[in-house]
Structure formats: structure tokens, C-alpha cells
């Protein structure tokens, strides 16, 4: 059984690496919710399988599927030596948000010790806003996913009571984290914590020394309350991609200008000025009537999903 670690990861020498650093493997969830994925999730499952197979050309992939979907997932992925399919219960497939945040340390273990160099942070998950504002009413399976992954990998766990999803943070691996006020300061996450308290926890658990707060995330991202992952990300230390539009009438424009202002007046943890690369976002994407009709709304429990058809 994987053990829980006491103390703060940063104090113990751990930090969250940048996403471009070498991985040991990739973890993916398997989609199946009919009220979220159209046509019994079949189109989504084919795409997930294709993504898993593409990643497996470079690193091992673990795909987690429910008992009901295990045979289906195994059948679509069977034959790829670098992919394993394991059975795991979950409420939906958003592993970036519900899985552990892996942290590592570079120091060598004391000779003869069993000191692990990789561990996982198990944040509290409340379905992006709890029952009143969250995406579905039951997330009792999702809250166990991080712990299960760490158990399977026999990696130590840092449990944390703070509500946080993986998509709400982004790091450069050299001490800098970017996040948004819209998400982490939302009352539906940690209403009893101040900005300073949240920032202190990010520093102590991610091993960062500086947090850059963008005001808001991408326009229309009500589901996650403005996650940073589709708004801005590091592509290398000191350089970020920023979602952008030149159309001043686009509701995204003010959000992008706000973020650009913050980034242009910020330095990273090492003192470098932030170089911003503007990445133009596409216009609105709409479901076709056929696609919308493929979503099973008979037992719809999403309160904040709006289906648009053309």
C-alpha cells in the first residue's frame, strides 16, 4: 500500500516538473457518460484510442476504464505493447483534473533507503463547484481516482484538503506557476482561504517560488470557472502562449488584453521578463443538430451545459 507523506512537498525537496519534461508514462480515463459524450461516447472513444496509440509510440500509456467499458476499451487498444488497460471506477474521464499532481525531487536517496523520488498530490475535488455549480451531482468515484493511481504505482501520496484541479495550474518547472483568479478565488472552491493562503499552499506543494495571477480564463469556460490550461501555458521557461483575438467585439478580447497586461509586467521566479506569443483562438464552434441529438438528456444532471445546434 502506498503511504501518505507528512510535511510539505517543497520542504522535502519535491517540485512539479514542466509538462515538456520526460514522462515515465501517461494516464488516461475512458469516456462513457451518455449525457456528456454523444452517441454513447463511441466517437469520443475512438478519438481517445487514437490519442493513446499515438502517445504510446513515445511512452507507456495506462488507460482506465470502468467495469462496463473494460472489454470495449481493451478491444480497441489490444495489440499495442506500450498500452495497458486497467479497470477503474470514475464519474467521468477528466484525468487532468481528478488525477494526482505528480511531483519529483532531484536529490539522491540516502544509501540503502527506500526514499521515493516521485510522489503525488491528491487535492480535494468538488466537481468544479460542488452540487450548486458543479458539472454533475455525483463525483464520489472521481475523488478516489488520484489515490487509486498512486496505489497502482506504489507511489507516496500527499493528501490535501484544498480544492484544486490540475487544469487550474501551469508551471515552468523552474519555480513559476500561472493560474487565474476567476478559478482559484471562486467562492465555490475554497471560500475560507485568502489569495495569500492559496498562494502559500501552491508554493509549498508545487515547489514554486512565484505565482502569476491572471484575472480570468477563456471566455465561455463556465464549466471549470476559467481554468488556465486553455488560456495560457508555458512552452519553455520565460515563454508563454496566450489565447488571443484581434476582434475587439469578441468577448474574449478584454480577457486576453487583461492577461497580456499582467504578463507583460511580470517576471518569472528567476527574474526573466515573460515573452508572450499570441495564439489566435477560433470562432465559436457549434454542435450540429444531429450531434446534439446524440447526447442522452433523459437523465441529464448537468446544470451548466448549454447545447447549441445549427
TrEMBL record:
Span of the signal peptide: none
Matches recorded under Pfam families: PAD_porph
Domain of life of the organism encoding this protein: Eukaryota
Gene3D superfamilies linked to this entry: L-arginine/glycine Amidinotransferase, Chain A (3.75.10.10)
InterPro entries named in the record: Agmatine_deiminase, Peptidyl-Arg-deiminase_porph
Matching SUPFAM superfamilies: Pentein
GO molecular function, one term: agmatine deiminase activity
Keywords: Hydrolase
GO biological process: putrescine biosynthetic process
Xref: PANTHER family: AGMATINE DEIMINASE (PTHR31377:SF2), AGMATINE DEIMINASE-RELATED (PTHR31377)
NCBIfam families tied to this protein: agmatine_aguA
Protein name, as recorded: Agmatine deiminase-like isoform X2
Organism annotation: Phoenix dactylifera
Taxonomy of the source species: Eukaryota, Viridiplantae, Streptophyta, Embryophyta, Tracheophyta
Amino acid at each position: 500500500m502506498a503511504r501518505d507523506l507528512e510535511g510539505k512537498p517543497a520542504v522535502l525537496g519535491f517540485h512539479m516538473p514542466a509538462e515538456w519534461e520526460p514522462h515515465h508514462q501517461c494516464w488516461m480515463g475512458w469516456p462513457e457518460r451518455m449525457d456528456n459524450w454523444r452517441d454513447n461516447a463511441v466517437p469520443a472513444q475512438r478519438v481517445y484510442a487514437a490519442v493513446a496509440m499515438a502517445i504510446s509510440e513515445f511512452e507507456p500509456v495506462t488507460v482506465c476504464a470502468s467495469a462496463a467499458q473494460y472489454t470495449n476499451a481493451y478491444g480497441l487498444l489490444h495489440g499495442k505493447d506500450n498500452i495497458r488497460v486497467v479497470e477503474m471506477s470514475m464519474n467521468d474521464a477528466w484525468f487532468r483534473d481528478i488525477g494526482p499532481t505528480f511531483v519529483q525531487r532531484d536529490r539522491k536517496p540516502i544509501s540503502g533507503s527506500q526514499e521515493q523520488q516521485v510522489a503525488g498530490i491528491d487535492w480535494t475535488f468538488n466537481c468544479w463547484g460542488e452540487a450548486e455549480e458543479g458539472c454533475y451531482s455525483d463525483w464520489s468515484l472521481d475523488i478516489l481516482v488520484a489515490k487509486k493511481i498512486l496505489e497502482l504505482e506504489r507511489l507516496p501520496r500527499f493528501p490535501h484538503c484544498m480544492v484544486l484541479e490540475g487544469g487550474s495550474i501551469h508551471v515552468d518547472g523552474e519555480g513559476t506557476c500561472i493560474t487565474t483568479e476567476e478559478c482559484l478565488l471562486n467562492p465555490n472552491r475554497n471560500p475560507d482561504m485568502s489569495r495569500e493562503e492559496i498562494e502559500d499552499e501552491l508554493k509549498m506543494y508545487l515547489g514554486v517560488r512565484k505565482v502569476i495571477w491572471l484575472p480570468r480564463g477563456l471566455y465561455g469556460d463556465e464549466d471549470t470557472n476559467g481554468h488556465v490550461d486553455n488560456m495560457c501555458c508555458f512552452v519553455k521557461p520565460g515563454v508563454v502562449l496566450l489565447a488571443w483575438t484581434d476582434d475587439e467585439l469578441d468577448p474574449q478580447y478584454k480577457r486576453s488584453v487583461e492577461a497580456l497586461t499582467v504578463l507583460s509586467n511580470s517576471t518569472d521566479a528567476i527574474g526573466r521578463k515573460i515573452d508572450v506569443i499570441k495564439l489566435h483562438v477560433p470562432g465559436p464552434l457549434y454542435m450540429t443538430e444531429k450531434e446534439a441529438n446524440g447526447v442522452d438528456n433523459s437523465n441529464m444532471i448537468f446544470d451548466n451545459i448549454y447545447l447549441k445546434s445549427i
